[in-house]
Amino acid sequence: MVNPTLFWIIAGGILCFTEFVFPTAFVSFMMGIAALLVAAVSLVLPQYTLLMGLWLIFSTGLTVLSRRFFTPKRKVSITGDDLEATAIGGIPAGTSGRVLYEGNSWRAKCADETRDIAPNEPVYVVRKQGNTLIVLPSRMLEQD
């Protein structure tokens, strides 16, 4: 019978090495780290069933934590490459209306809630907020 500590050290080393050969977004690396932690616990509690359960708990926990801390934050983008749209039916100040953006009708609000946007007026898309585009009239930006 193999010593449990030696088994978990070998398993941890293989899993950590596997991450460098076949990248899996730190999953096998975290499973290897969990195996090394279980190897330390096996010095005190050499019960295979308990060690397997600890390995499952440690690997799951470390994988979840690695996703939380090592996953890059997604950039908030507008919707596409085009920054220009056209107001379909005008947007009264402080309310929402519709704009034609990249061939589709989108709900839109003016970034400056004190300004009206006339029908068929060109607008610039400033940002996206949920399913609503935040726009500014092109005349407002061209005056500056």
Describe what you observe in this structure:
This protein has 144 residues and is an alpha+beta fold. The protein has two domains: 4-70, no CATH class; 84-139, OB fold (Dihydrolipoamide Acetyltransferase, E2P) (Beta Barrel). 43% of the residues lie in helices and 22% in strands. Strands 1-2-3-5-4 form a five-stranded mixed β-barrel. Helix 1 (4-21) packs antiparallel against helix 2 and helix 2 (27-42) packs antiparallel against helix 3.
Question: From N to C, what is the helix and strand string?
Answer: HHHEEEEEH
Strand fraction: 15-25%
Tally of helical segments: 4
Rounded radius of gyration (Å):
28 Å
Instruction: Determine the structural class based on helices, strands and strand pairing.
Output: alpha+beta
Distance between the termini: 81 Å
- Poorly predicted residue ranges: none
Mean pLDDT: 87
Number of folding domains? Answer: 2
User: Assembly type of the shown chains?
Assistant: single chain
**Helix residue percentage:** 40-55%
Q: Work out the number of β strands.
A: 5
Q: For the report, how would you describe the main beta sheet?
A: 5 strands, mixed, barrel
Shape: rod-shaped
What are its keywords?
about 45% helix; rod-shaped; five-stranded mixed beta barrel; OB fold (Dihydrolipoamide Acetyltransferase, E2P); about 140 residues; single chain; alpha+beta
